[in-house]
Design goal:
The chain has 15 helices and 20 strands. Strand 1, helix 1 and strand 2 form a beta-alpha-beta unit. The protein is an alpha/beta fold. The radius of gyration is 26 Å and the shape is globular. It binds xanthosine-5'-monophosphate. Xanthosine-5'-monophosphate (XMP) binds next to loops.
């Protein structure tokens, strides 16, 4: 087994980034919520070191989260970050107090003493930039600790107990605003905890192939292919692991991007030679969506129709023992909620939930431990073309949620053609890889225009482009005006039915990425 780090989550917004940074340095890591961690679970996971995340609580309040006390007696290196530092200090007998001065954003740390964390990165006497976000601060150290860094509002900005291999910082090394943060984390994982750094995608691929073979045995596996990166990577990985025991089913809703359905079929059937059932169900989906304009109704109709069609096709090929899914790590992490209560449903996401129970299938989810960018890396490792692996995410309900109001074949056609022009221009400008997602939305609004000498009364098209790292938050992409002008001209000249183009400058929140 490769060396691993355990990250105990106290609910910080950026805990996932700790896992990312640790994995980027070649060490496998998982995030476990503080309230699920016990001495036994730590022994079972068998980490070489533990990182305590930040969190929104204050250790000065009653009943706030703590790490299991035994953790500090297990002879394991521990690195506390922000709230993680505070709880560590408190639990080991030091003192934390609320502070009048809250520190948020960039701050400077004076490096006052040397320690293993700083090796090759920070030198004594230097001032180093970090990112802080805290109200409380440490005021007295537990036995065995010394100060190695201070800042204006955090006299104990970095502390060390070399003998026990306990380190803690008030700032966040996992965010990019702490420029040397990744190296500090790497010093902890490699130098302090002694991790080898041999967790690579090539190794992960081999390990997953072996796992899938063991799980599936001689069973049959069915995989829903959507054309997106995740399900494609699952399909190729499974094919490498179990060959013809895998059948892929591609339910074509008729609401994919232009030429996309053909591309998917030809890549998998012709190029990879993966058994693929292609069911063109456009008429069925369109029929059920006729006259429906409520976004949630659309999503529900598409979700349930998809499951019906998928099940029908699965039964035609004699059923399967397993259903393969592209579930990713962010969907699996149990994040800690301090507010309690279920979160509000903003949109019902389209997936094949419900199917495994109905058809009595077990799940195969080989991407459960990966972040999105790691999935892309795995895709490349499996030989998927770069252009395919780098594709923007595309939602399960497809163009249906980019056509506010009622859906007709005519509107789908207009949207597909406009979207293709937009994406072609983005590619030509070399911007495709900088953008998380770019797409067009055809509005159910007609406006008056003039073309040649004639009056037009056509649809409005909205263009959307955002940057994001995980789709949870997003910023609109700041195109040059000249670029927007060029795209607008081309669309109005080349796509009949549109006479006005607007650009969506809403970020998420308060907007969502898709319009429905
Ligand atoms: P929103 O619109 O919620 O989208 O900001 C966040 C990300 O999720 C994608 N998305 C979906 N993906 N099934 C999917 O597989 C869905 O039903 C779905 N709805 C939205 C969206 O494209 C963006 O990347």
């Amino acid at each position: 087994m490769t060396d691993r780090i355990l990250i105990i989550d106290f609910g910080s917004q950026v805990t996932q980034l700790i896992a990312r940074r640790v994995r980027e340095s070649g060490v496998y890591s998982e995030i476990h919520p503080f309230n699920k961690v016990t001495k036994k679970s730590i022994l079972d996971y068998d980490p070489k070191g533990i990182i305590l995340s930040g969190g929104p609580a204050s250790v000065t309040d009653i009943d706030t989260p703590r790490a299991p006390d035994e953790l500090f007696d297990m002879d394991l290196p521990v690195f506390g970050i922000c709230y993680g530092q505070q709880t560590m200090v408190e639990q080991l007998g030091g003192k934390v107090a609320g502070s009048e001065e809250k520190e948020f954003g960039r701050a400077m740390v004076d490096v006052t003493d040397d320690c293993e964390l700083f090796h090759g990165v920070w030198d004594v006497g230097n001032k180093e930039q970090v990112w802080m976000s805290h109200g409380d601060r440490v005021e007295a150290l537990p036995d065995g600790f010394r100060i190695v860094g201070t800042s204006e509002n955090a006299p104990y900005a970095a502390i060390a107990n070399d003998e026990k291999k306990f380190y803690a910082v008030q700032f966040h090394p996992e965010v990019v605003h702490t420029p040397h943060g990744a190296q500090l984390l790497e010093n902890f994982t490699h130098r302090v905890a002694g991790c080898g750094g041999d967790w690579t995608m090539a190794a992960f691929k081999e390990q997953e192939i072996a796992k899938v073979r063991e799980q599936v045995g001689k069973g049959r596996v069915i995989c829903g292919l959507s054309g997106g990166v995740d399900s494609s990577v699952v399909a190729v990985l499974l094919h490498e692991a179990i060959g013809d025991q895998l059948t892929c089913v591609f339910v074509d809703t008729g609401m994919m991007r232009m030429n996309e359905a053909d591309e998917v079929v030809s890549l998998f059937r012709d190029h990879y030679n993966i058994p693929l059932v292609h069911r063109n169900a456009a008429d069925l989906f369109l029929g059920k969506l006729e006259g429906v304009s409520d976004p949630e109704k659309k999503r529900k109709i598409i979700g349930s129709t998809f499951i019906d069609v998928f099940e029908e096709e699965a039964n035609k090929i004699g059923g399967a023992d397993f259903l393969a899914q592209g579930t990713l790590y962010p969907d699996v992490i149990e994040s800690v909620s301090f507010h309690g209560g279920p979160s509000v449903i903003i949109k019902s996401h389209h997936n094949v939930g419900g199917l495994p129970e109905r058809m009595n299938m077990d799940l195969v989810e080989p991407l459960r431990e990966l972040f999105k960018d790691e999935v892309r890396e795995l895709g490349r490792e499996l030989g998927l073309p770069d252009a395919f692996v780098g594709r923007h995410p595309f939602p399960g309900p497809g163009l249906a949620i980019r056509l506010p109001g009622g859906i007709t074949p005519e509107k789908i056609d207009i949207l597909q053609r406009a979207d293709a022009v937009y994406l072609e221009e983005i590619r030509n400008a070399g911007l495709y890889d900088e953008i998380w997602q770019a797409f067009a939305v055809l509005l159910p609004v007609q406006t008056v225009g003039v073309m040649g000498d004639a009056r037009t009364y056509d649809y409005v098209l909205a263009l959307r482009a955002v940057t994001s790292t995980d789709g949870m938050t997003a910023d609109f992409y700041p195109f040059e005006m000249e670029f927007l002008g060029r795209v607008t001209n081309r669309i109005i000249n080349e796509v009949r039915g549109i006479n006005r183009v607007v650009y969506d400058t809403t970020s998420k929140p308060p907007g969502t990425i898709e319009w429905e």
